Amino acid sequence: MLECSEILTKLVLIAFVLTFSLSYTLAQFFSMDYKESAHREQHSLFKPYTDLGHWDGFGAAVITPEYIRLTPDLKSQQGAIWNNKRVDMRSWGVHINFKIHGKGAVNQAGDGIAFWYVKERMIPGPVFGSKDYFSGLGVFIDTYGNHLFQSGSSRSEQHDSHEHPYISIIVNNGSQKYNHDDDGGSQNLGGCSVKVRNKNVTQILVRYDNDMVTILRDVDGKGLFDICAQVDGIELPTGYYFGISAATGDLSDNHDIFFVQTYEANNYEMRVHSIHASRDGIIPSARRDRPKEEEGGAWSVIRIMLALMGVTLIAACGYGLVAVTSNKPKGT
Ligand SMILES: [Ca+2]
After folding, report:
1. What is the distance in A from the centroid of ligand 1 to the CA of 143?
2. Is the pLDDT of residue 30 over 90?
3. How far, in Å, from the CA of 96 to the mean position of ligand 1?
4. Each residue of 54-72: pLDDT tens digit?
5. What does the alpha-carbon distance between residue 69 and residue 14 come to, in Å, rounded to a whole number?
6. Which of 17, 20, 185, 293 has its CA at a distance of 20 to 30 angstroms from the CA of residue 304?
């Protein structure tokens, strides 16, 4: 009969091996874009910004040598930068280095930054400074929780589990209106909370590969990324445009972009069904029947494994205790 200490030792060893293996996989995942993928200069943007190259400034955007200020910390501003080269890559990663900062207190900021991979560019509108009824992918860094200030039945229950600022992933085929009052809650495919305001710098990596959108975040700009959200089953066409926009309303922030670096992310083996399928002209779509993920799936797997090991340990120790008790000589 194994003693509890022996069982615990074995479980710790198993946990160590599993954790090491998973960490190695995640490390490979995070480093892939930087070591193996091909940089795409025509979709990237670096300082000094004397020349925007293949990008165009729009609206309130101000170009300085060190950064691009999409909006100043003033009310009712809209600004954007749009890449003017269509994207012919089926799989890509876009690394954005930015800063959101302003005089407003916590929960007194707005409205946020949007990363776009969309059909139409340079059209102002109400969705973080760009057009509504967009066709393509939007990743919104939403600094103002409109839903938090809704009341009664108009407040979506699914928002109660997260705080703003919040990153959300939304896919639109051009037919849906973005609901600001709900912070896009009914359309949100996945996301995470990010305390991005008034940091020195924040980084996100938006990756689209094998029909999967992955958001990696480095909130404090220290080079340590973790998974914000990962959503499978998203089909996007080639030939759309990258853009980044920002807007302010009654509340405001400076929305600054330091650089944009784009990679072709074709390291994964393509799925059989999509190897030869043309992505030119397909309609953007998302498989909405999958469960939403607040955090990355890998961390969920770790939690499940630890829970299973905990249950196993308790059961094994309990069984051992019962066995010892039943074999114990009876007193007189
Ligand atoms: Ca909002």
Report:
1. 6
2. no
3. 20
4. 999 999 999 999 999 999 9
5. 50
6. 185
Tens-place pLDDT, residues 68-96: 999 999 999 999 999 999 999 999 999 99
Closest CA to 194 of 162, 223, 158, 222: 162
**What is the average pLDDT value for the chain, to the nearest integer?**
81
What is the Å distance from ligand 1's center to 124 Cα?
17
Provide the pLDDT for residue 11. 61
Q: How far is the CA of 166 from the centre of ligand 1 (A)?
A: 9
Residues with CB under 5 A from ligand 1 (ion): 142, 144, 146, 183
For the record, the structure tokens of 245 come out as: 């926009």
pLDDT at 265: 79
DSSP string of 134-170, one letter each residue: -EEEEEEEE-S-GGGG--GGGS-GGGGG--SSEEEEE
Question: Residue 68: enclosing H or E segment and its boundaries?
Answer: strand 68-71
Tell me the CA–centroid distance for residue 116 and ligand 1, in Å: 16
* Cα-to-centroid distance, 57 and ligand 1 (Å): 24
Contacts of residue 162, defined as CB under 8 A and 6 or more positions apart, other chains included, come to 191, 192, 193, 294
Q: Which token pair is 109? A: 């900021």
In angstroms, what is the span from residue 245 Cα to ligand 1's centroid? Answer: 14
Helix (H, G, I), strand (E, B) or coil at 21: helix
In the predicted model, is pLDDT for residue 178 greater than 80? yes
Q: Which pLDDT band holds residue 267 (cuts at 50, 70, 90)?
A: low
- 213-235 tens-digit pLDDT: 999 999 999 999 999 999 999 99
Q: Is the dihedral of CA 34, 35, 37, 40 positive or negative?
A: positive
CA of 141 to the centre of ligand 1 (A): 9
